[in-house]
Design goal:
It is a single chain. With 132 residues, this protein is of the alpha+beta class. The protein is 30% helix and 30% strand. The chain is built from 3 helices and 7 strands, in the order ααββββαβββ. The strands form 2 sheets. The protein has a 4-stranded antiparallel sheet with strand order 1-2-3-4. A 3-stranded antiparallel sheet has the order 5-6-7, with no helix packed on it. The radius of gyration is 23 Å and the shape is elongated. The protein starts with a helix and ends in a 14-residue tail after the last strand.
């Protein structure tokens, strides 16, 4: 082994170590703040610009929201370090399973199969128009 080989080996090892360090640093997810009513409305407006939002229900833990827009339900739920937005029929949202304070909505999507929202009660009984 000559000196040039050892220098090349050391430089390659250092480059690999730097790339591993960069990959580890880049994969650290930024913490998400809980979703508020205003943030949920802004996300719904951004994702569904042609859908006027009539009512919004934000999850108690801030990890998602549900909105009524005519005969459609708009759903936003946390996925990774961001949010996923989907549209389903309002009747499907009303009939979704609600157990132990969690509304489980089947989105029938491979990328986001279901949304789980922590709500106080469901379906809403605060006098909002529920019929679509």
């Amino acid at each position: 082994m000559n000196e040039a080989y050892l220098i090349q080996l050391a430089a390659s090892g250092l480059a690999v170590a730097l790339l591993v360090g960069l990959a580890a640093w880049a994969s650290i997810a930024r913490p998400n703040q809980p979703l508020t009513d205003a943030q949920a409305r802004a996300l719904f407006a951004e994702e569904f610009p042609a859908k006027p939002v009539e009512a919004v229900w934000v999850a108690e833990d801030g990890k998602g929201a549900l909105a009524k827009s005519g005969a459609a339900a708009l759903v936003i739920c946390r996925f990774g370090d961001g949010f996923v937005a989907r549209q389903i029929p309002w009747g499907q949202a009303l009939s979704a399973a609600f157990r132990r304070g969690e509304l489980c909505i089947d989105l029938a999507d491979v990328a986001a199969p279901r949304a789980v929202l922590a709500l106080r009660s469901w379906p809403p009984s605060d006098g909002r128009d529920l019929a679509a």
